[in-house]
Amino acid sequence: MELAVGSVLTSDGGLATELEARGHDLSDPLWSARLLLDAPQEIRAVHAAFFRACAQIATTASYQASFDGFASRGLDRDDVARLLRRSVELAVAARDEANAANQANEEAPAGRWVAASIGPYGAALADGSEYRGRYGLSVDALRRWHRPRLEVLAGAGADVLALETIPDADEAEALVDLVRQLGVPAWLSYTIDGTRTRAGQSVADAFAVAAGVPEIVAVGVNCCAPADVLPAIELASSTGKPVIVYPNSGELWNGRNWDGPRTYSTELAAQWAAAGARIIGGCCRVRPDDIAAVSRSARRS
Questions:
Q1: How high does pLDDT run on average in the chain?
Q2: Which residues take part in binding Zn(2+) (predicted)?
């Protein structure tokens, strides 16, 4: 990924949101990763929809994919590795198709990338632990758990790894160490509540985990309230790295449904860009139309 001075890139929005909008029931421990097995063409179609909306970065459907999770469906390690690689192949295929379709389109964004999603350990538990952190595992144990999946995705052809929705600085430490060992580019994005990680640590201290690590090409926040983004940008900027932000729509999950008002807006995205965010997108409930509006705003600025 290349970030031109002063430029703002747009990432995609909620992959699972769009899959549900297409009629898929994701009430499954594997969440959207189940469709890597059952309906991979649908994942590619959603990537394509976000690229048509002028997203420049597609994030793969590997967030909740794990060796443990797929083993419960009877898949062996080779099968799981194949599915992890498939998550990248689907995004790459959609990216290449978008590039070919937009060669003569002056409004199309210059450059598109694929980010291989590395979700937290808590996501694989499928019990909401990624919004609490503090799993009772040591940094070394987390490092051992993440390594096999990270190694497969690091070699699958993505442009960057997305260490995303990380709730705990200890888990970030494990992931950053693995990325350093493998020598692959990655961004690190925490899920936060106010100015603290979901595990209760200072966000400023959590960002410090990535300071001085050249393999970490951006730091920021995702899967959080839009109101929490602006303060986080200032704290993330202290690392000297580009800042990435992709919050939720602002609606709240009550355990069964989303409710409350949508607060994600183009106006807020413009504030994030003015504050120094270099990559802006969305997470849960952020749709292609939202990303298209953010992209238009970024091109005007």
A1: 93
A2: 223, 283-284
Let me know: does 291 contact 12? Beta carbons within 8 Å: yes
Band (pLDDT 50/70/90 cuts) for residue 106 is low
| Contact status, residue 73 vs residue 37, Cβ threshold 8 Å | yes
CB 172 within 8 A of CB 212: no
pLDDT at 29 (0 to 100): 84
Q: Quick check: 83 and 36 in contact, CB under 8 A?
A: yes
Return the number of other C-beta atoms located less than 10 Å from residue 23's C-beta.
7
Please indicate if the annotation marks 224 as binding a ligand. Answer: no
Contacts of 96 (CB under 8 A, 6+ apart): none
Evaluate whether 247 touches 264 at the Cβ level (below 8 Å). yes
284 assigned binding-site residue: yes
State yes or no: 283 annotated in a binding site: yes
- Close Cβ partners of 276 (under 8 Å, ≥ 6 residues apart): 233, 234, 237, 243
Q: Rounded to an integer, what distance in angstroms lies between the CA atom of residue 274 and that of residue 280?
A: 11
Task: Identify the DSSP state of 301.
Answer: -
Q: Is 100 exposed, middle or buried (0-12, 13-18, 19+ CB in 10 A)?
A: exposed
Residue 1: pLDDT over 60: yes
pTM over 0.90: yes
Give the separation between CA 129 and CA 145, rounded to whole angstroms. Answer: 15
Give me 51's structure tokens.
Answer: 């690229």
